[in-house]
Amino acid sequence: MNHGFRRAYPSALLALGLTVPFCAAWGLYDQTHSLLWVVVAVACGLEFFPLELPGGRQWSTSVFCYVWAADQLGFGAASTTILFSVIAAFLRSAEGKLTGAHLKRLLIALGTHQLALIPAYAALHRALFLPYLIRSALAALVFEFVRAAALALTQSSTRRLRDFAAAFRGLHPAAFLIPASLAALISARETDWTVTLPTAALFVGFLWLSRAHAHLAGECKSTRQMYRVLAEHSADLVLIADPAGQISFASPGFLASAGLSRETLVGRSLFDLVAPEDFARFDELFTPSGADGQEHELALEIDGLRVDVALRVTFISSGGPHSSSYLLQARDLAPCRLRAADRLREERLEAVGHLAASIAHEFRNPLTTVMGFVQLFRSQFDEAAPGAYEAIWAELERMKDVTDSLIVLAKPEAVKPIPCDLADVAQSALRACDELALERGISVDLGPLQPAPVLGHPGQLRHMMVHLLRNAIEAAAETHGRVVLSTASTEAEAIVHILDTGPGIPDSVLEHLGEPMYDTQEKGTGMGLMVVHRIVQQHGGKIHIRRTEAPTGTAVEVRLPIHRG
């Protein structure tokens, strides 16, 4: 479509629309038939009750009023009917607004109607050999297609015409036959109202049914979209399969993180996704009687990925033998098991905390007294046995550290958190471990100590780092390795990283670290890592311990919420 036509065509429609009032005036002057005003009223009323077509489209059956007026009362009477019905449709859609754009749209609508009336009028008077019922239906079809084509040309697109043609393909023939039959009965020379009135009632009922059907179809579509959105945004794996097991719908859920998409699942068989050891069990669930809607634990194997899931299978029957399907919802059990392990760990820590409270209370006061007297008689110890004081004091310090750890487990320190920098805390903890590193012959290297501000208890954080450094030094001493300490920060977290090149912790041991009475050392009690976990938890952070391979060793990473003071 060239540029000149796009500019001239709307102007032509506007000019044609301006002719409608003149044709209507000529029709009213030339036609005094009282039935014309009945037809006009019916046409205007039908504009407020359009026929609902599939796909949410609407079609005004007032076209049959135009056809009847054109056949029985002439072209001018049809123009009169068009003028009033288009104005009624405009008032229905304009919502009380009247601007230049609205007036232009009204004139274009009149122009497209008048343009479509010409071939429809010709079809009525050229096909006299056909029964009136067939002629009126044919004229209505011609009118609507020409009008739709004219509107499509105003938008420089044929999509509107294709949409209208698609709507016609889904339109029931009764939409043409009932109005055409009513028009044929009214146009008879001797009108039989005992037949005409029931036909009119049938037509009104058909309009009402079409609106009710459109309303139900809209509700079904809305519900279908809502459930599709819920399924697609669910964290669970949601599948719909036919009775043969072929997947027709898939929402990957938790499998999306593993790179599995809807396209990789749709069309596959459900039986290809089940682990071999659970195949027989799934075969029992995938039956109308076995699909009880309850959760069953089994394993899935999808493209090399194995996942333990809680699977819920529901049988959906639509009444027909070939319309049934199965709805499957699989929930990943790994997060649930992880939460259960965390709860169990917290319960153990709480139990140990209650025990630690009583032990710390009994030990602290006597220990303070003993340490005071040992310092008081330091000279006597040195005279009795050189080095005895240092040995006794070291053991007492060790007992004090254990008591302090018990206090941390028993009850958080009742001190208001203050801003502190993990880099400064790390340097302080390193100074406290210098003697142990020198004794073990281990080099402790400082990596980048970037500022890492947090809001917390400096004493507890120092205690946490001292314990982690001591563990790293003891591990590195077994292989004459080294220890690296560094700090960093991101937009949301402050990070402490401690790496040792010791023998490394076996994977079977990693998952138990931090549990009471579990330690990697033969004489350990697991108290130290329990305290570390409790301190990290109290500061709202996370600790991650993993084995490294290049070089072999253990990496500990503590992440705490950063403080933006």
Could you give a quick summary of the protein structure above?
The protein has helices at residues 3-30, 35-47, 63-72, 75-94, 100-126, 132-154, 159-169, 174-186, 193-232, 262-265, 279-285, 333-376, 378-384, 388-410, 422-440, 458-477, 507-510, 527-538; strands at residues 51-52, 58-59, 237-241, 247-251, 292-302, 305-316, 325-332, 418-421, 443-449, 453-456, 482-489, 493-500, 542-549, 552-561.
Protein described:
- With 565 residues, this protein is α+β, with helices and mostly antiparallel strands.
- The protein is 58% helix and 17% strand.
- The chain has helices spanning 3-30, 35-47, 63-72, 75-94, 100-126, 132-154, 159-169, 174-186, 193-232, 262-265, 279-285, 333-376, 378-384, 388-410, 422-440, 458-477, 507-510, 527-538; strands spanning 51-52, 58-59, 237-241, 247-251, 292-302, 305-316, 325-332, 418-421, 443-449, 453-456, 482-489, 493-500, 542-549, 552-561.
- The strands form 4 sheets. A 5-stranded antiparallel beta sheet has the order 4-3-7-6-5. The chain has a 5-stranded mixed beta sheet with strand order 9-11-12-14-13, covered by helices on one side.
- Strand 11 and strand 12 form a beta hairpin.
- Helix 2 runs antiparallel to helix 3 (63-72).
- The longest helix has 44 residues, at 333-376.
- The protein is elongated, with a radius of gyration of 43 Å.
